[in-house]
Design a protein that fits this description.
Elements lengths: L8 E2 L8 H8 L11 E8 L3 E9 L11 H4 L2 E3 L2 E5 L5 E4 L1 H14 L7 H14 L11 E10 L12 E10 L10 E5 L17 H16 L4 E5 L7 E4 L3 E6 L4 E4 L9 H12 L4 E4 L3 H10 L2 E8 L3 E10 L2 E4 L7 H14 L10 E3 L1
Parallel strand pairs: 1-3, 9-10, 9-16, 13-14
Antiparallel strand pairs: 2-3, 2-8, 4-7, 5-6, 5-7, 6-18, 7-8, 10-11, 12-13, 12-15, 15-16, 16-17
The structure holds pyridoxal-5'-phosphate (PLP) and 2-OXO-4-methylpentanoic acid.
Cofactor: pyridoxal 5'-phosphate
Family: Belongs to the class-IV pyridoxal-phosphate-dependent aminotransferase family.
Enzyme class: transferase
């Protein structure tokens, strides 16, 4: 069934926060704590395709206890940011890539694909309704969280015949409190995030549920993030719970684990392939073993390690720990190449550098 043309209705929130309330939140937003005054919703059924696009006041969703997502986790999501530029415009970074990834995730989770114009239109409509919530100054942004879930009330295990798509927005400062400081990483040897043929490359809630216990284990060992290896050989580095990884080598080249089918295809990761090449580095996608991480940091072949993602931007990795040992790249502080890549990325996102690749969509 083809979907209706994208033409959302807009219902203004009569209980919107006052200017003073909003300003107080924007002064120190943190990450994921506060939500704007509106949200976007649309529905899908086999008969009607995508329909009923609407911007409505932000608020609770009422779900029947038998709603399929609550039982079988048929759910996918995205994450992207809108930035306030000095010229007064608001831009989103590579939203077309998020639209495409949501379609790939939908395919894997047997959910209906959302047309690209609906995805971009939903982002535009919500940001336009909540323009006042896009923070200005520093490294702040409006984090957008589009998600889609099985909303049919039915306990049989089959793809849902009613699906809801929603976008919420949250003003965001740094993901890691403390700003750009190296993070510590725990190597998960007991648990995997995803397996061959599984859902690792899809951005589905279940992957994150599977990462929470190892994330707790990381915290017990004093680490902020957890690194996962491939589930078959427990040898090849995949990624962190919510970020991809990069390794800077002593010859200035940069390596990132190749896409294995169980790694999330990060848009920041993909952008850094280009940005680092623009900065003159050789960039290689290949398998990286955990021994290479340990030995390379010990013998100086690996000089810097960093993590990247929409929420985390580019974050230096200080130490990797495991039962009985640890590996520190360089002096454990943020490396020069890491910070150069980071600056090139954020300068582009905030309009301080030329958008050579046409990545910033004006809303
Ligand atoms: N890997 C995982 C598991 C993630 O959740 C994320 C965050 O979205 C990333 C990598 C980075 O992806 P992106 O750069 O598209 O935000
Ligand atoms: C993002 O970077 O958008 C994510 O989804 C990662 C999550 C840890 C917040």
């Amino acid at each position: 069934m083809t979907s209706a043309p994208f033409a959302p209705t807009v219902e203004t929130n009569p209980a919107a926060r006052t200017d003073a309330e909003r300003e107080a939140i924007l002064a120190s937003p943190g990450f994921g704590n506060h939500f704007t005054d509106h949200m976007f919703l649309a529905e899908w059924t086999p008969e009607q395709g995508w329909h009923d696009a609407r911007v409505v006041p932000y608020g609770p969703l009422q779900l029947d206890p038998a709603t399929a997502v609550l039982h079988y986790a048929q759910e996918i999501f995205e994450g992207l940011k809108a930035y306030a530029w000095a010229d007064g415009s608001v831009r989103v970074f590579r939203a077309e890539e998020n639209a495409a990834r949501l379609q790939r995730s939908a395919h894997r989770l047997a959910l209906p694909e959302l047309p690209q114009d609906w995805f971009l239109g939903s982002v535009d409509a919500l940001v336009a309704a909540d323009r006042a919530w896009v923070p200005e100054g520093g490294e702040t942004s409006l984090y957008l969280r589009p998600f889609m879930f099985a909303s049919e009330a039915f306990l049989g295990v089959r793809p849902s015949q009613h699906v809801t798509y929603c976008v919420i927005a949250s003003p965001a400062g740094a993901y890691f409190p403390g700003g750009v400081k190296p993070v510590s990483i725990w190597l998960s040897t007991q648990y995997s995030r995803a397996g061959a043929g599984g859902t690792g490359a899809a951005k589905c809630g279940g992957n994150y549920a599977a990462s929470l216990l190892p994330q707790q284990e990381a915290a017990q060992h004093g680490c902020q993030q957890v690194a996962f290896l491939d589930s078959t050989e427990q040898r090849w580095i995949e990624e962190l719970g919510g970020m991809n990884l990069y390794f800077v080598q002593s010859d200035g080249s940069i390596v990132t684990p190749e896409l294995s089918g169980s790694i999330l295809e990060g848009i920041t990761r993909e952008s850094i392939l280009t940005i680092a090449r623009d900065l003159g580095h050789d960039v290689v996608e290949r398998r990286v073993s955990i021994d290479e991480w340990r030995e390379g940091t010990a013998d100086g072949t690996i000089t810097e390690v960093f993590a990247c993602g929409t929420a985390a931007v580019v974050t230096p990795v200080g130490v990797l720990k495991w039962d009985g040992g640890e590996a520190v790249a360089g002096d454990g502080e943020a490396g020069k190449i890491t910070m150069d890549v980071r600056s090139a990325l954020v300068d582009l996102q905030y309009g301080r550098a030329e958008d050579r690749h046409g990545w910033m969509r004006r809303i």
